[in-house]
Write a structure and sequence with these properties.
With about 350 residues, this protein is of the alpha/beta class. It contains 13 helices and twelve strands. It has helices at about 10-25, 65-75, 90-95, 95-120, 160-180, 200-210, 230-245, 260-275, 280-285, 310-315, 325-335, 340-345, 350-355; strands at about 1-5, 30-35, 55-60, 80, 130-135, 185-190, 190-195, 215-220, 225-230, 250-255, 260, 290-295. The strands form three sheets. The chain has a seven-stranded parallel β-sheet, sandwiched between helices. The radius of gyration is 20 Å and the shape is globular. It starts with a strand and ends with a helix. The structure holds nicotinamide-adenine-dinucleotide and 2'deoxy-thymidine-5'-diphospho-alpha-D-glucose (DAU).
């Protein structure tokens, strides 16, 4: 039986991933979810499995070496999937410190703990024990030539405090592989969207604002490009890399689904109008008049685009969900989970929104 230690499992991708592996492997696996429950962590995302046999939640900080070591000592963990991070670029611009602490030092704590638990006296590692570090395409910087794509060989060139911290964490994982032969993989993925995403990120923020008749804040000229991937496809890619990929390798995960931000916002408007019942009052105010161009993000990367050739060739992964289906599924999920949205946007979220957008 495999035992997973998933960090950041109460966040957006982590909670989707836990659902994905339980759906795929059922009772064949155990999952220990370690999460500090920051503003981005929400146990409601895992409500349907909280009592499931084989699932354990531990509220802990990944920087707390003593607790992380203890979890390794008390459990025969043979898979680590490391999601826990501060993940929002705008927050990193306001306050870089916590990004270095969690993303860099937290990753080092996880690596030290796994190495202590798995390395044998002769320097080899327990067989079939693996660590997967979940990272981002933002480490590669911004593409200016429309013909260019991010490959695994693309030079790192991070610009924001967030991407600099993720790049540092990637380098630490690479250092452990190169120095200690530590059994790991890195995945660098493009922008995810789907259920349980916190509404500070573009897609859920626009859905939430549109449904409440609030303006839709588009940074700069709205022509920045991101490569959007439905979150379940990302989860599937992570699992395939860990089970079928070559150890020590990096794999880029992305959708060949590049869109300008303004196109995303207009698609959300038209899809919401299409999906709301004819007699729903909200349809009247959900128009492009809500779009408001606001001051650009500092250091705003222009374009990200992944070439997912290696992961396709080596493990047979490809993005299965086309954007038109994915965005409808996502909006349908937010319709069905309006109480979830109201709960996560009350209280502290209101303060965040004020500080980020009021004078923009
Ligand atoms: P998220 O912000 O939704 O969730 C992060 C989770 O980590 C939360 O549950 C939070 O409570 C937890 N956490 C934060 N600090 C912690 C700490 N010190 N100790 C323990 N837990 C802590 O993030 P996400 O969007 O789900 O991203 C998950 C991972 O995937 C991150 O590493 C991110 O860099 C990477 N990633 C995200 C995307 C994307 O589009 N969202 C794309 C590529 C890679
Ligand atoms: O590329 C992968 C990365 O994608 C992940 O590593 C990050 O964790 C994740 O947050 C995401 O980063 P982005 O900065 O690309 O995502 P965000 O949703 O914040 O913004 C997407 C684009 O939309 C970006 O060009 C900024 C713009 N934007 C964003 C917000 C929140 C707006 O125009 N208005 C907004 O209100």
């Amino acid at each position: 039986m495999r035992t997973y230690l998933v960090t950041g499992g109460a966040g957006f991708i982590g909670s989707n991933y836990i659902h994905y592996i339980f759906k795929k492997y059922g009772d064949e696996i155990r999952v220990i979810n370690v999460d500090k429950l920051t503003y981005a962590g929400n146990l409601e995302n895992l409500k349907d499995i909280e009592d499931k046999e084989g699932y354990t939640f531990v509220k802990a900080d990944i920087c707390d070496a003593e607790t992380i070591d203890r979890i390794f000592r008390e459990n025969d963990i043979n898979r680590v999937v490391h999601f826990a991070a501060e993940s929002h670029v705008d927050r990193s611009i306001k306050d870089p410190g916590v990004f270095v602490r969690t993303n860099v030092l937290g990753t080092l704590t996880m690596l030290n703990a796994a190495r202590n638990a798995w390395e044998q006296e002769d320097g080899s590692y327990l067989p079939d024990h693996k660590f997967l570090h979940v990272s981002t395409d933002e480490v590669y910087g911004s593409l200016s030539n429309p013909e260019d794509y991010f490959y695994e060989t693309t030079k790192y060139d991070p610009h924001s405090p967030y991407s600099a911290s993720k790049a540092s964490s990637d380098f630490m994982v690479k250092a452990f592989m190169d120095t200690y032969g530590f059994p790991a993989n890195i995945t660098n993925c493009s922008n995810n969207y789907g259920p349980y995403q916190f509404p500070e990120k573009l897609i859920p923020l626009m859905i939430h604002n549109a449904l409440h008749g609030k303006s839709l804040p588009v940074y700069g000229d709205g022509m920045n490009i991101r490569d959007w991937l439905y979150v379940e496809d990302h989860c599937k890619g992570i699992d395939l890399v860990q089970e079928k990929g070559r150890l020590y390798e990096t794999y880029n995960i992305g959708g060949h689904n590049e869109r300008e931000n303004i196109t995303i916002v207009k698609t959300i408007i038209s899809t919401l109008r299409d999906m709301l019942p004819e007699d729903d009052e909200r349809r009247a105010h959900i128009t492009e008049d809500l779009i408001t161009y606001v001051t650009d993000r500092k250091g705003h990367d222009r374009r990200y685009a992944i070439a997912p050739d290696k992961i396709k060739k080596e493990v047979g992964w490809y993005p299965e969900t086309c954007f038109e289906d994915g965005i409808r599924k996502t909006i349908a999920w937010y319709f069905d989970h309006q109480e979830w949205m109201e709960r996560v946007t009350s209280g502290a979220y209101q303060d965040y929104y004020e500080s980020m957008y009021s004078n923009r």
